[in-house]
Amino acid sequence: KKEMLKVEGLKQYFPIKGGLMGRTINHVKAVDDISFTIYEGETVSIVGESGCGKSTTGRSILRLEEPTDGSVVFNGEELTTLSKREMRKHRKDLQIIFQDPYASINPRQTVADVLDEAMTIQKILPAKQRRKRIIELLETVGLNEYQADRYPHEFSGGQRQRIGIARALSVNPKLIICDEAVSALDVSIQAQVLNLLEELQEQYQLTYLFISHDLGVVRHISDRVIVMYLGKIVEIGDKHSIFENAKHPYTKALLSAIPVPDPTREKKHIVLTGDVPSPIDPPAGCRFHTRCPFAQDICKKETPVLGTYAAMADGHEAACHFVEEIESGTLQAKEFEE
Ligand code: SF4
Ligand code: MG
C-alpha cells in the first residue's frame, strides 16, 4: 500500500489576543498533536462533534491555516516547508470540497466559467480544448452540456455540489478532502452524491479524506475512521472495528446516538451529558474525563495514548486507560448526576 498522506504531530493553535497591548494571552488548541496515514485509493473519515478539530485538520493539511507544528507528507513530499508558490502547484493534486459550494462559486460566473477558471489557474489543457473537457466533466458528475452556460443559482443544492465536484476533478487531483460535503443536502440527495463520489474514486483512483459529523454518512463512505475529541484522536480503525467493535467510551457514546439498523441486536447506551469543554483550556489528562461515565482519578492526570488491546483488529487503536476493564465489565459506568 502506498502512503498518500502522512500526518505526524500536527498541531494547530490559534492565538487569543487580549489585554492592553493585544498580546497573545492564550491559545485555542484546535488540533493538538495528531498523527495518521492515508493510503492510496482509500477513504478515511474524520468524525466528531463540532469543535473537535476535524475541519481544522483538513484546512491545516492544505495550509489554508499554517500548522503550528508537525509534518504533512503528501505523495512523498513535505508540504509544511514549501513556499506559498510551490504549495499552490500542489493544490492541483490536493483539492477540497466544502459544505456549500455556492459560497465558493462566483454567482456571476457560469458553470463553464467556473471550470474553465480552475483549469486555467492550474494550466490544465490549452484554452481551445477546455470546452470539450468541461462538457465531459459535467457528464461525469451527472450534469449535461446544456447546463454549462447556466449560473450557479439556477441549480439545486445537490447539483451545485456536483458542480463543486466537477471543479475539483477538473485539475486531476489525487486526494480530495471533503469537508461536510454532503451535510447540507437532503438524505436522498446525500446518497446520490456519496454514490457519485464512490464511482469517481474507482474511475480516477482517488483518495478521500472525508470530514463529517454525520455517522450515517461516514458509515456509508469510509474504509477507515478517525474519531476526534477536543483536538485529539481518541480512536482509529477500519469501518467495521469502529462501528461494530468501538472501544473508546466517546466513540460508543457517539454511536449510541444513532438508531440501530438491526433492532434484534442489543446495544448498550452511553448517553453524552454536558457540552464539549473549551479547547482553550482543555481538561487535563484524558480530555473526555469531564463527560466520561467510566472516568477514574488517573484519567484527570494522565493523558491516554492510542494503543491496541486484546480483541482489537490490526490498525484499530483507542486512547483510553481502561479499554480492557470496560470491555470485561470490571469497570462499570457511573451514573451522572443531573
Ligand atoms: Fe474515560 Fe478515563 Fe478512558 Fe478517558 S481514559 S475515556 S476518562 S475511562
Ligand atoms: Mg467542521
Task: Summarize the structure in words.
The chain has 338 residues and is an alpha/beta fold. Helix content is 30%, strand content 22%. It contains 11 helices and 11 strands. The protein has a 7-stranded mixed sheet, with helices on both faces. A 4-stranded antiparallel sheet has the order 2-1-4-5. A hairpin with a 2-residue loop joins β4 and β5. α3 packs parallel to α5. The longest helix has 18 residues. The chain is globular. The model has no long low-confidence stretch (mean pLDDT 91). Bound molecules: iron/sulfur cluster and magnesium ion. The site of magnesium ion has 4 residues, from α1. InterPro entries: AAA+_ATPase, ABC_transp_ATP-bind, ABC_transporter-like_ATP-bd, ABC_transporter-like_CS, Oligopep_ABC_C, P-loop_NTPase. It comes from Sporosarcina saromensis. Keywords: ATP-binding, Nucleotide-binding, Transport. Belongs to the ABC transporter superfamily. This is Dipeptide ABC transporter ATP-binding protein.
Q: What does this entry show, briefly?
A:
By secondary structure, this protein is an alpha/beta fold. Helix content is 30%, strand content 22%.
* Cα-to-Cα separation, first versus last residue: 49 Å
Total count of strands: 11
Helix content: 25-40%
Task: Tell the overall outline.
Answer: globular
Summed over residues and divided by their number, the pLDDT gives a mean of 91
Strand ordering within the main sheet: 6-7-8-3-9-10-11
Percent of residues in beta strands? 15-25%
Number of helices: 11
Classification by helices and strands: alpha/beta
Q: Could you tell me the radius of gyration in angstroms?
A: 22 Å
What small molecules are bound in this structure?
A: iron/sulfur cluster, magnesium ion
Largest sheet: number of strands, sense, barrel closure: 7 strands, mixed
Low-pLDDT residue intervals, each spanning 5 or more residues: none
What are the secondary-structure elements, in order, as H or E?
EEEHEEHEHHHEHEHEEHHHEH
